[in-house]
Design a protein that fits this description.
- The protein has about 425 residues and is an alpha+beta fold.
- The chain has nine helices and 23 strands.
- The strands form six sheets. Strands 4, 5, 8, 9, 12 and 13 form a six-stranded mixed sheet that branches.
- Helix 6 crosses helix 9.
- It is elongated, with a radius of gyration of 32 Å.
- The protein starts with a helix and ends in a 5-residue tail after the last strand.
- The N terminus is likely disordered.
């Protein structure tokens, strides 16, 4: 009995799913058109019907849609000609519109002799949009454009490095970090040529009729990240006459200047500069040290963007831990963060613009474990866990004025032996 009920439920679920897929794959839309030419009036009605589903116009395919015969106009003796056009238009409409319209039925048509216009109304069968993956959410769209270099090559410890390759690597690393935040719908532009080539197959004569509605869903970005990369040559050195050793001073290695632009308005939403010193780069070769520096730069840019658009927040609490709404590669176990309680939004009395909400630091927390989409932290100082509100803002501590302490595991400055051999940090 249970097996029979289960089989019935499964069959019902599959039937409902198939019905949903069928209703989503083809939709009936009403369109209206008017023109002195009957053929063009039908065409305009089909354009209106198809655009309601696909969000694109048939205007670019006018030549493909219209018959190759001459356009016929309504005259007193042209009733038979219009009938021929009516039948001609309905034949192979799917092929003529390249799958944008599968079929149609005219519901009403009339000719206004005073205005010399045809009025046509029709119901068109149009391929519905195909939802790829999960339903769309409210995440803002973002694209990282290829960064630009200010110089072609830089000589670092006797080895020339291509700055253009560094630009590509930093953009790719920034894309990866932003995807890990789960805060944006990231769009790809690095392989735009390959995507365009695949979509061009829709214009082939034997392309599937349903594919047009399925793939004509190209997204335009909300935010665009652009930037420049500058690499510095080997830092200056200081000679110690007592030891006979020349030590290279720590200095900037990579400088990333970036901007976040709101594309619809071209408004500059955020801009910043990240400088990565030589001492922050680790590895056993200049290549691995460079990769380390680029990883640091990408993480810092990602942190700046997310914290100024979608700051990290306390999203839930367990018995002993706070649950943060970020994880993946952007949060590491052992990291320390400050927690802030936000007040009411402040409005500028002059411009009426919202300036944001004041923040009061209430606690300091330390991350204990990290999941792909969230992380967990304990309170190490300040307000007890049970008094920290859900929704509180979480930020990385700001550095105190003065020289920053060397990070854990940082390399020591470059040294040159009395014989003149340079020993880079990643070789010691």
């Amino acid at each position: 009995m249970k097996k029979a009920i289960l089989s019935s439920l499964v069959a019902f679920g599959l039937a409902a799913f198939a019905q949903t897929q069928q209703s989503n794959s083809v939709q009936t839309k009403h369109g209206c058109g008017r023109n002195a030419d009957y053929r063009t009036a039908v065409y305009e009605a089909l354009v209106q019907a198809a655009s309601q589903v696909q969000g694109v116009s048939l205007q670019d395919s006018r030549d493909a849609f219209m018959d190759s015969t001459a356009q016929l106009r309504k005259t007193k003796s042209g009733d038979s000609d219009v009938s021929e056009v009516r039948e001609s238009l309905k034949q192979n409409v799917s092929a003529k519109t390249k799958g944008r319209v599968l079929s149609y039925e005219i519901t009403q048509e009339r000719f206004d002799k005073e205005m010399n216009l045809w009025y046509v109304e029709l119901d068109a069968k149009v391929p519905g949009q195909y939802t790829v993956g999960l339903p769309a959410d409210n995440r803002r769209r973002m694209v990282v454009m290829p960064f630009r270099s200010l110089t072609d090559k830089v000589n670092v410890f006797g080895q020339p490095l291509q700055v253009g390759t560094t630009c590509e690597t930093i953009a790719a690393a920034l894309n990866e970090n932003l995807v890990q935040t789960r805060r944006f719908t990231m769009l790809d532009r690095a392989f735009n040529a390959e995507t365009t080539a695949e979509l061009s197959r829709l214009n082939l004569e034997n392309a599937s009729a349903g594919d047009f509605g399925r793939f004509q869903q190209l997204l335009v970005t909300d935010y665009m990240v652009i930037g420049t990369v500058k690499m510095y040559p080997s830092p200056s050195a200081s000679y110690n006459q007592w030891t006979g050793v020349t030590t290279a001073n720590d200095g900037p290695f990579l400088e990333i200047a970036y901007r976040v632009i709101l594309v619809p308005t071209s408004q500059l939403k955020w801009a910043g500069t990240i400088i990565v010193p030589y001492s922050a780069c680790r590895g056993d070769s200049i290549d691995t040290a460079l990769a380390s520096g680029m990883s640091v730069a990408a993480q810092e840019v990602c942190h700046d963007i997310v914290n100024n658009i979608y700051p990290m927040r306390v999203t839930a609490k367990t018995t002993y831990e706070l649950v943060l709404n970020q994880g993946g590669k952007n949060v590491r176990a052992g990291e320390v963060f400050d927690v802030f309680r936000q007040g009411e939004a402040i409005v500028d009395v002059t411009s009426g613009e919202t300036l944001g909400a004041p923040e009061e630091q209430i606690a300091r927390i330390q991350v204990t474990r990290v999941d792909p989409k969230m992380s967990y932290a304990i309170v190490v100082e300040g307000t007890p866990l049970d008094q920290i509100p859900v929704g509180a803002v979480v930020r990385r501590p700001k550095a105190l004025p003065g020289p920053a302490p060397a990070p854990a595991g940082a390399v020591t400055p470059v040294q040159v032996s009395p014989s003149g051999t340079v020993t880079p940090p990643w070789k010691r």
